[in-house]
Amino acid sequence: LSQDEHTLMDNQHSNSMDNLDSECSEVFQPLTSSDDALDAPSSSESEGVPSIERSRKGSSGNASEVSVACLTERIHQMEENQHSTAEELQATLQELADLQQITQELNSENERLGEEKVILMESLCQQSDKLEHFSRQIEYFRSLLDEHHISYVIDEDMKSGRYMELEQRYMDLAENARFEREQLLGVQQHLSNTLKMAEQDNKEAQEMIGALKERNHHMERIIESEQ
């Protein structure tokens, strides 16, 4: 072969080898990119993972905030209920103290009325005894007059000063005794009615005190259950 033919053949061989390398590189280049694509996450997937994590964290944070808000509201409501119950308990205790004071006053009034009733009864008995005593004296004087045959039923102008004095004294005593007796009976009736009313008020106060004590115990149990 001539020198030119050898040169031409060498150039063709070289071109053939270059074309083969180019084709191989084209063939293997997609395979390499595909493998890399399988190994590495896509851009959308790499962006989606943090988004999901942020979403989960946000949801967890929102749930925690809601739970804290609910607990705070619940605690606030319990504090308001406890405050209201404490105020009602304080008012009940004050009412109970007032009723106890009224009961003590009624008991003192009952004792005073009882003492006054005893005094009036003693005075009534004394006046009755005096009236009976004077009546016996008058009967005795009349018996003396009858025994000595002295007339004590005579005209007004013939009566002695002593007889008129005794008669006037007797009439005054009888009138005073009758008036005092009626007055004492009226006072006794009034005291009896007042005493009955006081006893009734005392009974009602005792019942109310018992009810308030029961209410007080109930409120204490409510406060203990809420704490």
From TrEMBL:
Gene name in the database record: SPECC1L
Low complexity composition bias: residue spans: 33-47
Signal peptide annotation: none
Coiled-coil ranges from the UniProt annotation: 86-116, 163-222
Keyword annotations from UniProtKB, A to Z: Coiled coil
Region entry Disordered, spans: 1-65
Keyword RNA-binding set for record: no
Annotated Polar residues bias: 9-19
Name this protein carries in UniProt: Cytospin A
